[in-house]
Design brief:
The structure is a single chain. The chain has one domain: Roll (Pnp Oxidase, Chain A). Helices cover 31% and strands 30% of the residues. It has 4 helices and 8 strands; from the N terminus they run αβββββαββααβ. Strands 1, 2, 3, 4, 5, 6, 7 and 8 form an 8-stranded antiparallel beta sheet that branches. A hairpin with a 6-residue loop joins strand 2 and strand 3. The chain is globular. Belongs to the F420H(2)-dependent quinone reductase family. Pfam families: F420H2_quin_red. GO terms for molecular function: coenzyme F420 binding; oxidoreductase activity.
Length: 168
C-alpha cells in the first residue's frame, strides 16, 4: 500500500469517527451507541462509548468514540489505533490522569481506570477480539503491545455536549 493510500484511509477513518462522535453528542447518546460496522469487519450490533480526556500538553478536551465491551461491570476499551506503531493520543492523555469521563448511550460517569496484566489481560484481549475481530489483524500489523483499558464507573455526571470540545 502506498503512503498516499494509507493516508487517505486514515483521513476517511478520522472523518467517520468525527461524524460518529458528533451524532452521539447531538443526540445526547440516543444515537451512536450501537452501530453496524460489519463493512469494516465488525458486527452488525457493535457497542460504542465516548470517553472525554484532557490533553496532557494542550489542556484541550478530547472526546473519542470507541468500541467497548463489558466484563463484570467494568467497561473495556482497546487502544488499537488501527494497528499503527504508536498508541493513540487519547491513551496518552488518559494515562496522565487518575480518572476519565465515560458516556454509554444516555448515561455518563466519572470513572477510574486500570490496565489488566498477565493472564487477566490475555482473557480480556480474547474477549475484545470477539467483540471486534479486526483487533487481531491490528496486533499483527504492529510490534507494540496494544493496550487494553478497563474503566469502572464511579460517579454519575451530565452527558457530554458539543460545547465540551471548545473547553481548554
Amino acid at each position: 500500500m502506498s503512503n498516499e493510500s494509507a493516508a487517505a484511509i486514515r483521513q476517511e477513518r478520522r472523518d467517520w469517527m468525527a461524524k460518529h462522535r458528533d451524532t452521539y453528542l447531538r443526540s445526547g447518546g440516543a444515537q451512536g451507541h450501537v452501530m453496524d460496522i460489519s463493512d469494516v469487519g465488525g458486527h452488525t450490533f457493535t457497542t460504542h462509548c465516548l470517553i472525554r480526556v484532557k490533553g496532557r500538553k494542550s489542556g484541550r478536551t478530547q472526546i473519542v468514540p470507541l468500541i467497548y465491551g463489558d466484563i463484570a461491570g467494568e467497561v473495556v476499551i482497546v487502544a488499537s489505533k488501527g494497528g499503527a506503531d504508536e498508541n493513540p493520543d487519547w491513551y496518552h492523555n488518559l494515562r496522565a490522569h487518575d480518572e476519565v469521563d465515560l458516556q454509554i448511550a444516555t448515561q455518563a460517569f466519572r470513572a477510574t481506570w486500570r490496565e489488566p496484566e498477565g493472564e487477566e489481560r490475555h482473557r480480556i484481549w480474547d474477549f475484545m477480539s470477539h467483540v471486534y475481530p479486526p483487533y487481531l489483524s491490528y496486533q499483527r500489523a504492529t510490534t507494540r503491545h496494544i493496550p487494553v483499558v478497563m474503566m469502572t464507573p464511579v460517579t454519575p455526571i451530565d452527558v457530554f455536549e458539543e460545547s465540551d470540545l471548545q473547553s481548554s
